[in-house]
Amino acid sequence: MKNKILELRKNKELTQETLAKKCNVTRQTINAIENDRYDPTLALAFKIADVLDTTVDDLFKQ
């Protein structure tokens, strides 16, 4: 499953570290999700979507 986290994060001028802190995860977790090496839990997906002002459906695409 592809995601638009990197694109949306950069549009908001957030670093991986900043996004990670806002979602209570490590920077490495955000990096792994952005690079399609880790699928986040549903709860984390909702947190990321909230921070990036989008929906989970728009955040992830098949």
Structural domain count: 1
- For the report, how would you describe the main beta sheet? 2 strands, antiparallel
Number of helices: 5
The succession of helices and strands, N to C, reads EHHHHHE
- Percent range of helical residues: 55-70%
Choose one word for the global shape.
globular
Low-confidence stretches: none
Task: Give the rounded overall mean pLDDT.
Answer: 95
Secondary structure class reads mainly alpha
In which order are the strands of the major sheet placed? 1-2
Radius of gyration of CA atoms, rounded to a whole number: 10 Å
CATH architecture annotation: Orthogonal Bundle
The CATH C-level class name? Mainly Alpha
Please indicate the percent range of residues in DSSP E strands (runs of 2 or more).
5-15%
Question: What is the CATH homologous superfamily assignment?
Answer: lambda repressor-like DNA-binding domains
The third-level CATH topology is 434 Repressor (Amino-terminal Domain)
What is the number of E strands? 2
Description:
- Helix content is 60%, strand content 6%.
- The longest helix has 10 residues.
- The chain has one domain: 434 Repressor (Amino-terminal Domain) (Orthogonal Bundle).
- The termini are close together.
Set down the secondary structure blueprint.
Layout: E1 2-3, H1 5-11, H2 16-23, H3 27-34, H4 42-51, H5 56-59, E2 60-61
Antiparallel strand pairs: 1-2
Helix pairs in contact: 2-3
